[in-house]
Amino acid sequence: MPSRKVGGKPTSSDVAAAAGVSRSAVSFAFNNPQRISAATRERILAAAAELGYTPNTLARMLQAGTTNSIGVLLLPQRLAQILENPAVRSRSRTGRC
């Protein structure tokens, strides 16, 4: 098994070594299971469970270069004003609702 820091979290390399497969096979087991046989996937998942391995979502986002998140900037105004529909506001001023 590859060495890791004492007390550190197990990595996909650790799981691969314990299951006797490549790191790619470990990735397939978690992300694209149809790419490997059911027996290999079960062996990988058993090794992962034994080691306490869970995929690192942050590492995955860094590797992919995307977070699939949307940022929202709220200005120092009341939320109701920000979300108010300008079309509704203009109709209420003219009396045509």
Provide a descriptive summary of the structure in words.
The chain is mainly alpha-helical. The chain has one domain: 434 Repressor (Amino-terminal Domain) (Orthogonal Bundle), CATH 1.10.260.40. It is 55% helix and 0% strand. It is built from six helices and no strands. The model has no long low-confidence stretch (mean pLDDT 82).
**How many beta-strand segments?**
0
CATH T-level fold name: 434 Repressor (Amino-terminal Domain)
**Would you tell me the structural class of the helices and strands?**
mainly alpha
Based on CA atoms alone, the radius of gyration comes out at 25 Å
Name of the CATH architecture: Orthogonal Bundle
The share of residues in helices is: 40-55%
Indicate the low-confidence ranges by residue numbers.
none
Strand percent estimate:
under 5%
What is the top-level CATH class? Mainly Alpha
Specify the CATH homologous superfamily.
lambda repressor-like DNA-binding domains
Q: Secondary-structure element order, as H and E? A: HHHHHH
Biggest pleated-sheet summary: none
Number of helices: 6
**Please, what is the average pLDDT?**
82
The number of domains: 1
